[in-house]
Amino acid sequence: IKKEKYELNIFWREICKNTNIPFKPLNFDDGFIIHARTMGDVHSQFRSPSRVVNYNVPTTWISPLGTENHESSTLPLGIVLNENHEFNQISNLFAIGPSTFPRPGAANPSLTTLALSRRLAYILN
Questions:
Q1: How many CB atoms are located within 10 Å of the residue 81 CB?
Q2: Most distant CA pair in the chain: distance in Å?
Q3: How many whole angstroms from its chain centre is CA 79?
Q4: How many C-alpha atoms does 63 have within 13 Å on its Cβ side?
Q5: CB of 72 within 8 A of CB of 98?
Q6: 18-42 tens-digit pLDDT
Q7: Exposed (0-12), middle (13-18) or buried (19+): which is 72, by Cβ within 10 Å?
Q8: Are 87 and 94 in contact (CB under 8 A)?
Q9: Most exposed among 9, 26, 31, 64, judged by the fewest C-beta atoms under 10 Å?
């Protein structure tokens, strides 16, 4: 978990550098044992009429194992990524997996993930 947080901050630093956003380290809620903010909590917060929008600060949350179902849709194709799975704002950086889905599905995403992975392999080949 510590390594994941470290890697995400490296990634966020590069995004900030490439988009001229002042870098501020990501702030992750602590604890994977107790209930922390989940995707549902973040969704409710985003829809709140009292929300103050700061587009230069990503929202972070912790999803303890077993509390979320098939996390996805954070990097949807056609919005954050182009049709070739490449980030619109960062050339030669590609993403694959459930994060590229336009919205979460109800079924296990394994086969769709494998199909998208194979598609990206053909694109990059």
A1: 20
A2: 48
A3: 13
A4: 14
A5: yes
A6: 889 899 888 776 554 445 556 666 6
A7: buried
A8: yes
A9: 31
